[in-house]
Design goal:
Layout lengths: L2 H11 L1 H7 L3 E3 L10 E13 L5 E15 L2 H15 L4 E3 L5 E11 L2 E3 L4 E12 L1
Parallel strand pairs: 1-2
Antiparallel strand pairs: 2-3, 3-7, 4-5, 5-7, 6-7
Length: 132
């Protein structure tokens, strides 16, 4: 299983997030005419760790943006809170059996955005995930 599939399953299985968005968790973009609130996720970067002057150490740090979308500001913030709750300081096998071994997840930044054209609130949460 790749990290993106493991992340999807992990977010989908988080009870607090599921209570708000059900299974409306999408890779990269929202579907046309989406039901809100919803979540999208996208890999922003992937950096393999290296030993100085040597080969790979064996783990990778991947930066993922998990975007929280809603028709109200408070709903977008509630979704972002559940995303942070699901991911902050997580370690273990993300995605269950056959998933990805996560050494640490750290929510490193968050913004508040209003998408005027679409008339939706958008709270992107950037997460650094260190994994094998």
């Amino acid at each position: 299983m790749n990290l993106e599939a493991a992340l999807y399953k992990h977010l989908k299985d988080h009870a607090g997030l599921a209570a708000l968005v059900s299974t409306r968790i999408h890779p990269l973009t929202l579907p046309q005419d989406p039901t809100l609130p919803a979540v999208t996720y996208a890999k922003a970067s992937r950096v393999p760790a290296r030993q100085i002057g040597g080969g790979p150490v064996g783990y990778v740090t991947t930066r993922v943006q998990v975007s929280c979308w809603a028709s109200t500001y408070s709903a977008a913030k509630d979704v972002a809170e559940q995303v942070r709750d699901a991911l902050q300081s997580y370690s273990g096998t993300m995605g269950g059996a056959g998933g990805v071994t996560v050494l640490d997840a750290n929510c490193v930044s968050e913004m508040d955005i209003y998408e005027d054209e679409a008339k939706v609130y958008h709270v992107p949460v950037d997460v650094m995930i260190t994994h094998l």
